[in-house]
Amino acid sequence: MVLNIKFKLNSINKILKDHELQEDGKVNEFLRDTVYRLSEPYTPNDNGILYKQVVYPNNHSIKYTVPYAHYMYKGKVAVGSSRPKGIKRVISNQPLKYQGAPKRGAEWDKRMMNDRRKDVIRDIQNYIKGGGK
């Protein structure tokens, strides 16, 4: 006796969408928010504005909106004047000195992930297991 079984699997895209795992799904939004929250102690903080001035272009990106964010992230002194308008500053080779260093400093997201990767993974797993809550 031969038993023939046929079944149809959902597409990968459908499975990802059903579980909110697509690029702009709820899981990526939760991951973005978790990375942002856990990065706070690593983000340069002279007056708190850098950390607070963000926008979310999508569910998987954070954009720091203060004019000096790029230089702070790179960790190098910016040279040149932002005046007159249209003249851009250039990143030098001189390192910035951060208040709260060595924890606060350049490339804060990468340094946070090196230190807290397991926490991020655990939070994402708990979020998925909890049905997105």
Summarize the structure.
By secondary structure, the protein is of the alpha+beta class. Helices cover 40% and strands 11% of the residues. The strands form 2 sheets. The chain has a two-stranded antiparallel ribbon. Strands 3-4 form a two-stranded antiparallel sheet.
Q: Can you describe what's shown?
A:
The protein is an alpha+beta fold and 133 residues long. The protein has one domain. It is 40% helix and 11% strand. The protein has helices spanning 12-18, 26-39, 49-52, 69-74, 108-129, and strands at 54-55, 63-64, 76-79, 90-95. The strands form two sheets. Strands 1-2 form a two-stranded antiparallel ribbon. It has a two-stranded antiparallel sheet with strand order 3-4. A hairpin with a 7-residue loop joins strand 1 and strand 2 (63-64). Helix 2 (26-39) crosses helix 5 (108-129). The relative contact order is 0.16. The mean pLDDT is 90.
Residues in β-strands, percent? 5-15%
Number of domains in the coordinates?
Answer: 1
Largest sheet: 2 strands, antiparallel
Number of strands: 4
Strand-pairing-aware structural class: alpha+beta
Topology:
Layout lengths: L11 H7 L7 H14 L9 H4 L1 E2 L7 E2 L4 H6 L1 E4 L10 E6 L12 H22 L4
Antiparallel strand pairs: 1-2, 3-4
What are its keywords?
133 residues, two-stranded antiparallel sheet, 5 helices, 11% strand, elongated
